[in-house]
């Protein structure tokens, strides 16, 4: 067994562990929502992050690469969740930084999509 195949096996093992833990975290979150009998936007965004992580893992297994836009979508969702969790009592400058980061990531996604339209499939 060569080094490349060992690294590939370790990578796939960790991805399976990540998938398992993501599904477990989703289950825990659903149980908390049922127990609280209340669903808020922050909860939905967290569930969306979990779904995107699973989508990223599925994309990797389908094509053996991770499309760059999926982690960027996860980052935008995570930043949106931070803005919601911050609430009204937070420092307004932090809100500007977080929203600026979302704008930059969205711009990067737009540029990547434009490049892919002209160059063909994602690399």
Could you walk me through the main structural features you see in this protein, from its secondary elements to its overall organization?
This protein is an all-alpha fold. The chain has one domain. Helix content is 84%, strand content 0%. The chain is built from four helices and no strands. It has helices at residues 3-36, 41-63, 69-86, 92-119. It is flat and about 55 Å long.
Q: From the alpha-carbon coordinates, what is the Rg to the nearest angstrom?
A: 18 Å
Major sheet size, sense and barrel closure: none
Class based on secondary structure composition and strand pairing: mainly alpha
Fraction in beta strands: under 5%
Short description:
This protein is an all-alpha fold.
Draw up the topology in text.
Blueprint: H1 3-36, H2 41-63, H3 69-86, H4 92-119
Helix pairs in contact: 1-2, 2-3, 3-4
Key phrases:
4 helices; 0% strand; mainly alpha; flat; 123 residues
